[in-house]
């Protein structure tokens, strides 16, 4: 079955496609039979002795034996541990309500900031942007965000202040930006110095030296979503030369 | 048995004077005042003859008595919603008798387990739709629900369905496995005594 999966890497699969455990026609008596282990990522699900595809997308493979479906999705589904950019919509008692683009709003306790105590409240107003990560995110409970990590440090999270622009991109572009050795990120670094906060919910916050540069970066990121690598490099090169 | 003993069954409303203390002994649903027996519920009057003693008069809401969960009773309930602090349940059975109405209960986070109470995560103990065996610790006030606990080995989740929809098999006191997808999920599993398990 691993060979069957490896053949389809890079192909577009649809929900309902399945991979069966095929018994070999001839079993070798001399060689040791090694059990094949396959790690299923998002989009693949095991059902009995078959592997079912649940989402439509491209099958990807990572050594040694991890397979997953790379799919495009507009709606963000919260997952524990992911960092997102949210907008504070309400303050009720000790808890802020944050809109992160999901099906319901998440709660953010005022004690979940670095250095926050009952007397020392954080300076968060309604309408502020926060960069936080999910503490609780499942389909049965209201999602909960925190702006500190396990050891109590902010680690870059908290209120995003000082101007800047928040815009939306697709979830696929966000994953490409946050991948290690991301080419988009390295190309962008050569353009202008800027502060970039990428949330897994498809929201990106950019802050650069001038308003014009901020807008240029925002437009570039939104447009290079549907471009190939070559087109994107061409576009960045033209911007660098100052044509656009 | 009721029909053989009861003489008549008539309707009464709250405050109705039923009879005097010399005629009957008071039972449930009635109260004594100035030597007369008054009804305290709106329902049916039952008069039970118990041999040589005076008959017992009582007022019940329905002709069959309802079994109410009492403190210390083992109840079977179904989880309706979970919260980081507690889980809300509907009580379905008291012991082995089914209830006509569904009573509401709450299982607080600190009542889920007997050990390591502060490290309990409700999401890893119960999920909506699980059938849970619990014990009543408090009847609660007018507004609050029954307070339940699962802090014993024999209490906890009995039947649970996995995310794929199949009924899961318990593999330890804190994990259950789905037979279709082989994925494990966390629950606070009850250790049911072997004589109660049906093959």
From TrEMBL, chain A:
InterPro entries: Exosome_RNA_bind1/RRP40/RRP4 (IPR026699), KH_dom_type_1 (IPR004088), KH_dom_type_1_sf (IPR036612), NA-bd_OB-fold (IPR012340), RRP40_KH-I (IPR049469), RRP40_N (IPR048541), Rrp40_S1 (IPR037319). Keywords: Cytoplasm, Exosome, Nucleus, RNA-binding, rRNA processing. It is found in: Cytoplasm; Nucleus, Nucleolus. Belongs to the RRP40 family. GO terms for molecular function: RNA binding. Residues 36-65 form the Exosome complex component RRP40 N-terminal domain. One of its GO terms (biological process) is exonucleolytic trimming to generate mature 3'-end of 5.8S rRNA from tricistronic rRNA transcript (SSU-rRNA, 5.8S rRNA, LSU-rRNA). Pfam families: KH_6 (PF15985), RRP40_N_mamm (PF21261), RRP40_S1 (PF21262). Residues 164-210 form the K Homology domain. It comes from Monopterus albus (Swamp eel). It comes from the Eukaryota. GO terms for cellular component: cytoplasmic exosome (RNase complex); nuclear exosome (RNase complex); nucleolus. This is Exosome complex component RRP40. Its main location: cytoplasm.
Automatic annotation (TrEMBL), chain B:
It is found in: Cytoplasm; Nucleus, Nucleolus. Residues 70-151 form the S1 motif domain. The keyword Membrane does not apply. GO terms for molecular function: RNA binding. The keyword Protein biosynthesis does not apply. One of its GO terms (cellular component) is nucleolus. SUPFAM superfamilies: Nucleic acid-binding proteins, Ribosomal L27 protein-like. GO terms for biological process: rRNA processing. Its main location: cytoplasm. It holds the Pfam family ECR1_N. Keywords: Cytoplasm, Exosome, Nucleus, Phosphoprotein, RNA-binding, rRNA processing. PANTHER family: 3'-5' EXORIBONUCLEASE CSL4-RELATED, EXOSOME COMPLEX COMPONENT CSL4. Belongs to the CSL4 family. Component of the RNA exosome core complex (Exo-9), composed of EXOSC1, EXOSC2, EXOSC3, EXOSC4, EXOSC5, EXOSC6, EXOSC7, EXOSC8 and EXOSC9; within the complex interacts with EXOSC6. The catalytically inactive RNA exosome core complex (Exo-9) associates with the catalytic subunit EXOSC10/RRP6. Exo-9 may associate with DIS3 to form the nucleolar exosome complex, or DIS3L to form the cytoplasmic exosome complex. Exo-9 is formed by a hexameric base ring consisting of the heterodimers EXOSC4-EXOSC9, EXOSC5-EXOSC8 and EXOSC6-EXOSC7, and a cap ring consisting of EXOSC1, EXOSC2 and EXOSC3. This is Exosome complex component CSL4. It comes from Monopterus albus (Swamp eel).
């Amino acid at each position: 079955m691993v060979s069957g999966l490896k053949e389809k890497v890079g192909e577009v699969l649809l929900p309902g496609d399945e991979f069966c455990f095929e018994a070999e026609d001839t079993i070798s008596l001399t060689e040791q039979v090694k059990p094949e282990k396959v790690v299923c990522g998002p989009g693949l699900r095991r059902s009995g002795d078959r592997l079912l595809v649940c989402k439509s997308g491209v099958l990807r493979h990572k050594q040694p034996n991890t397979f997953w479906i790379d799919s495009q999705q507009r709606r963000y589904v919260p997952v524990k541990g992911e960092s997102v950019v949210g907008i504070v919509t309400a303050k009720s008692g000790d808890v802020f309500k944050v809109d992160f683009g999901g099906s319901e709003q998440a709660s953010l306790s005022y004690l979940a900031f670095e250095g926050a105590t009952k007397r020392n409240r954080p300076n968060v107003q309604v309408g502020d942007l926060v960069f936080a990560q999910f503490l609780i995110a499942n389909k049965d409970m209201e999602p909960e965000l925190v702006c500190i990590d396990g050891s109590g440090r902010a680690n870059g999270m908290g209120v995003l202040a000082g101007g800047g622009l928040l815009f939306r991109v697709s979830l696929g572009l966000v994953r490409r930006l946050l991948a290690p050795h991301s080419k988009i990120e390295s190309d962008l670094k050569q353009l202008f110095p800027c502060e970039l906060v990428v949330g897994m919910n498809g929201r990106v916050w950019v802050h650069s030296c001038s308003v014009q540069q901020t807008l240029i970066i925002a437009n570039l990121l939104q447009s290079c979503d549907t471009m190939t690598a070559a087109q994107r490099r061409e576009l960045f090169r033209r911007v660098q030369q100052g044509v656009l | 048995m009721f029909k053989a003993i009861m003489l008549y069954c008539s309707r009464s409303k709250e405050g109705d004077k039923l009879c005097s203390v010399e005629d009957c002994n008071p039972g449930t649903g009635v109260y004594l005042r100035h030597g007369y027996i008054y009804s305290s519920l709106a329902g049916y009057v039952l008069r039970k003859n118990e041999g040589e003693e005076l008959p017992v008069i009582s007022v019940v809401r329905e002709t069959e008595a309802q079994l109410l969960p009492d403190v210390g009773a083992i109840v079977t309930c179904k989880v309706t919603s979970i919260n980081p602090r507690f889980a809300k349940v509907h009580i379905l059975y008291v012991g082995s008798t089914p209830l006509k109405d569904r009573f509401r209960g709450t299982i607080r986070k600190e009542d889920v387990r007997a050990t390591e109470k502060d490290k309990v995560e409700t999401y890893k103990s119960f999920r909506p739709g699980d059938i849970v065996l619990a014990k009543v610790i408090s009847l609660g006030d007018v507004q609050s629900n029954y307070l339940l606990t699962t802090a014993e080995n024999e209490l906890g989740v009995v039947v649970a369905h996995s995310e794929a929809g199949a009924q899961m098999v318990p593999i330890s006191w804190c994990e259950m496995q789905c037979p279709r997808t082989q994925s494990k999920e966390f629950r606070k599993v009850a250790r049911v005594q072997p004589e109660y398990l049906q093959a």
